[in-house]
Amino acid sequence: MRLRAVTFEASDPVRAAQFWAALLRREAIEDADGVLLPGTGTQLGLRFVAGRAGRLGKNRMHLHLTSADLDEQRRTVAMALESGGRHLDVGQLPEEEHVVLADPAGYEFCVIEPGNAYLAGCGPLGELACDGTREVGLFWSKVLGWPLVWEHGAETAIQSPGGGTKIAWSGSPAAPKTEPNRQRFDLLVAADGEQSALVSLGATRLEIDKNGAVLLADPDGNEFSVRASETPRP
Fold it and tell me: Can you tell me the distance from the alpha carbon of 115 to that of 135, in angstroms, rounded to the nearest whole number?
């Protein structure tokens, strides 16, 4: 199974995709379903699709961008503000060196200060930080075949064997879910039978969406989509 991208709903997916394409220096590819910023073997892909307008409930994921030095951190923040982002107060302390912003779709993200040892070597898109339990971190480690690279109390983080973007879960109790998340993982699988493997690991099958993708939920109840890979695995 391969994590194709993290999908974000947006009232204007093209604008959101253009914002992130500029920040990450990636190509934005439009198709019938939305706009994809393809990842690489070590950098997470992002996908933007039309969805419900406005902020609905709690955003359970946010991105962390890395900085080689203070000048790069300032340039990234300036570019984000010029491209439609804005500063965001989430209760960060004055002495904290990361900068918290929101993108044009209203999703929080952080531009991390240089010298952060935890994200050293992770690349420009250093981390996807998620609300979630230890159980869900272990679930995604098994699903993706990515080893745990951080485990402290209930906090977990996984990373591709090739390195790159980390995916982390806070371990703290998640806010109650009253409606579907606006952010979700988008998986590619080589065979339909692998959906049964997901269920055996703790996923719950929900439905098939209008584009033919199977929608499931992880052990914390977070929705994710699964679709067949366009090319068979070698």
Answer: 30
**How many Å apart are CA 212 and CA 207, to the nearest integer?**
10
pTM: 0.91
On whether the CB atoms of residues 196 and 157 are closer than 8 A, the answer is: no
Q: Which CATH class is domain 2-169?
A: alpha beta
At 15, give phi and psi (nearest 5°).
-65, -45
In the numeric block, the tokens 């892909």 are attached to 45
Q: Where are the domains of the chain?
A: 2-169
Which letter does DSSP use for residue 151 in this model? E
* Among candidate residues 213, 196, 212, the one with its CA nearest the CA of residue 204: 196
Output DSSP code: residue 95. Answer: T
- Do the Cβ atoms of 185 and 6 come closer than 8 Å? yes
What is the rounded radius of gyration, in angstroms, for the C-alpha atoms of the chain? 17
Quick one: DSSP state of residue 72? H
Tell me the per-residue pLDDT of 187-221, one tens digit each, with 9 for 90 and over.
998 766 677 889 999 999 887 766 667 889 999 99
